[in-house]
Write a structure and sequence with these properties.
The complex is a heterodimer of chains A (288) and B (356).
Chain A: H1 3-6, H2 18-45, H3 49-54, H4 67-75, H5 78-109, H6 115-127, H7 130-143, H8 150-175, H9 178-186, H10 191-202, H11 204-220, H12 223-228, H13 237-247, H14 252-273
Chain B: E1 4-13, E2 16-26, E3 31-35, H1 42-50, E4 57-62, E5 65-66, E6 77-80, H2 92-102, H3 107-120, H4 136-148, E7 154-158, H5 166-183, E8 186-191, H6 194-200, E9 203-208, E10 211-216, H7 218-223, H8 228-233, E11 240-246, E12 251-254, E13 259-261, E14 273-278, E15 284-298, E16 303-309, E17 312-318, E18 329-333, E19 340-343
Parallel strand pairs in B: 3-8, 3-9, 6-7, 7-8
Antiparallel strand pairs in B: 1-2, 1-4, 4-5, 9-10, 11-12, 11-14, 12-13, 14-19, 15-16, 15-18, 16-17
Classes of the chains: A mainly alpha (288), B alpha+beta (356).
């Protein structure tokens, strides 16, 4: 039996399983469809203008035109844009996650009146489409005099990020056995200690997943940034990329280099944190 | 170590009462087991002692101090849960030291306490493991270790052995008893398993429907149950209960009409309805009423027999090996000086006039 044919059989069966074969074929086709644009972007970003015109879209670059990257970086004013993106994401993502986790803990584990009502109010935030809120938010931020400032963009980001994170974390915290926090209470832990020493560590896989999703969403966010950050010195990378595209549309090499530079941090963060997706940190806490 | 006094304790969830006024006195160093069927309020009572449930009415004192309104951590108690409730991300040592760490004790002191507890529970080689890497019995030992390091006045156990397999349960049972002897600790232990209660307790509190049915030493409860509930709950297999009516002096008529002699000494009014209680080991064979065998369960050392007699199925325990098969006719003697009589209306056990 060859290595490849092993994947097409049920364990212990000598026959090829047509469903498994079909699934593998679909998987490969889907993966190819997804990876094709990335290959196109990365290859094109490394081709000179002449080579872009003269070669097929998916052919590898003949010589690597690294200068596309430095040129795009300078012409797109990426130093400023990256700095803004980093500041906004580095503040918003951890802060938002921390606030959501605390809110979810309170809603799931602290006995209080109106708890369900509070939860529903927070959940309501997940039901309002973001686009509907753009104009009111602009007016609100403008009224506070926060247009073209970091707080002016970070605060609405937080408001839109918290509800769905609270929703996910509330579900997770509610599933933590009650005895765990009771044992900690008897051991002398306050709510904050239970939250920080027990709940945060055991919810690391969930927090990592939310961190990735929120990082990518915040890093790539376009519409709200476009409305609130109007000064080009305050632009984030997606805004910078848009400006670059409208100016240097025909320079495919540099344009794709700019795209790669915009997307790369999100990819790196994803690759770093995805290993925490492996769950199982809660196993052994209590007998299931 | 300390005494625990529970006075007129009540608990209600909204308008639903679950504990209806419970009084228990637990002496210093005593091993008290709360036992009863599920839903009888024994776990709620334990959680009220721990401070995890509020008290609707009444009072709990530990060592003479009223603890009704104290936080769990201020009551000087430690609790072991059925599902262990170990902190999964911490090692065994960290689990055991957590309470001391929160209390702000010095590191050397914490290390010494952990080492002592680990020594007592033979956990020393496992101190760096995480709970996920331990077996069920080891996890429960860690949970006990977490309690020991704090030197609490009272240990509370909430069905700690229910998640373990049968063999481990027997082993942990004697380990906890040995621990009790060694620490001379006051222990309140909740279980639904009357065998656990009988084998471990200094005194047993039998609970039912939010009330205390009887408090007493294990064999006392077995020999002198206060009422029908305790009679049927304590002892395995359970006591046989046959409805009967007093007829001629010293005689009882069973529901099928057969007449047996009442245990001597009871002045029974003619026509009084009672329940006749007989433990399986007090049933004798070879004489008496005719019946037949329904089932035979030999355990090796003794034989359980289910027999049909006088219109009832009763359970009997024979110390000798009986060569009988289902369907065989058998003579069953239901009369015994050890039989109990219970009032049919209120379920209370009738006492001999001179003993009462």
């Amino acid at each position: 039996m060859t290595l490849a044919s092993r994947f097409f059989r049920q364990p212990g069966s000598a026959h090829l399983d047509p469903i498994l074969v079909g699934l593998w074929i679909s998987l490969i086709i889907l993966a190819a469809l997804w990876i094709a644009p990335f290959i196109f972007i990365v290859f094109t970003s490394l081709k000179s203008a002449a080579e872009v015109m003269g070669s097929s879209a998916f052919s590898p670059p003949a010589d690597y035109a690294w200068e596309n990257y430095s040129a795009a970086w300078q012409r797109g004013n990426f130093t400023t844009a990256s700095f803004n993106s980093i500041i906004i994401t580095a503040i918003k993502v951890p802060l938002g996650l921390f606030l959501s986790a605390m809110a979810a803990y309170a809603l799931a584990c602290v006995r209080m009146r109106w708890r369900k009502l509070f939860f529903v109010v927070v959940l309501f935030g997940t039901m309002i489409p973001f686009q509907v809120m753009l104009a009111p938010i602009f007016r609100q931020v403008n009224a506070f005099g926060l247009i073209n400032t970091y707080p002016g963009i970070i605060l609405p980001y937080l408001a839109f990020g918290v509800p769905y994170q609270v929703f996910i974390l509330h579900g997770f915290f509610s599933a933590v056995p009650r005895e765990l926090s009771e044992a900690a209470r008897i051991d002398g832990a306050s709510h904050f200690v239970i939250f920080r020493r027990i709940f945060l560590p055991i919810s690391l896989p969930v927090l990592a997943a939310l961190f990735i999703l929120d990082f990518v969403a915040t890093w790539n966010e376009f519409a709200m940034a476009l409305v609130i950050l109007q000064d080009s010195d305050m632009w984030t990378l997606p805004l910078g990329l848009m400006a670059f595209q409208s100016q240097f549309q025909s320079n495919y090499g540099q344009l794709n280099a700019a795209i790669v530079m915009t997307v790369l941090p999100a990819v790196i963060v994803y690759l770093i944190f995805q290993r925490y997706f492996v769950a199982g940190l809660v196993s052994g806490a209590v007998k299931e | 170590m300390a005494s625990v006094a529970i006075r007129g304790l009540k608990k209600a969830y909204g308008s639903v009462p679950v504990i209806h006024g419970v009084d228990i006195d637990i002496e210093d160093g005593e091993f008290v087991v709360l036992v009863g069927p599920s839903g009888c309020g024994k776990s709620t009572l334990l959680r009220m002692i721990a401070g995890l449930e509020s008290i609707s009415d009444g009072e709990i004192t530990i060592d003479g101090r009223r603890v009704n309104d104290l936080e769990p951590k201020d009551r000087d108690i430690a609790m072991v849960f059925q599902n262990y409730a170990l902190y999964p991300q911490m090692t065994v040592a960290q689990n055991m030291g957590f309470a001391l760490e929160l209390a702000g004790r010095r590191r050397a002191e914490i290390q010494a306490e952990i080492a002592r507890a680990a020594e007592i529970l033979s956990l020393t080689p496992l101190l760096d493991r995480k709970p996920a890497q331990l077996s069920g019995g080891q996890r429960q030992r860690v949970a006990i270790g977490r309690a020991i390091v704090r030197h609490p006045k009272v240990f509370l156990f909430d069905e700690p052995l229910s998640n373990l397999d049968a063999k481990l349960r027997v082993q942990m049972r004697s380990e906890i008893k040995a621990l009790h002897r060694r620490l001379r600790a006051t222990i309140v232990y909740v279980t639904h398993d009357q065998v656990e209660a009988m084998t471990m307790a200094d005194r047993i509190v039998v609970m039912n429907g939010g009330r205390v049915e009887q408090i007493g030493q294990p064999l006392d409860l077995y020999d002198h149950p206060a009422n029908l509930f305790v009679a049927q709950f304590i002892g395995s297999p359970a006591m046989n209960i046959l409805p009967a009516v007093a007829v001629a002096p010293g005689q009882l008529r069973l529901s099928d009409g057969s007449v047996i002699a009442a245990p001597p000494g009871f002045p029974l009014r003619h026509g009084r309805e009672i329940h006749y209680g007989l433990r399986p080991e007090d049933v004798r064979f070879g004489e008496g009423l005719p019946g037949h065998v329904i089932d035979v369960e030999p355990t090796g050392s003794e034989t359980f027999l289910v027999v049909s007699v006088a219109g009832h199925e009763i359970m009997a325990l024979a110390k000798e090996r009986l060569m009988v098969a289902p369907g065989d006719p058998i003579q069953v003697a239901l009369e015994s000086p050890k039989a109990h009589l219970f009032d049919a209306k209120n379920g209370l056990r009738l006492r001999l006039p001179d003993a009462a």
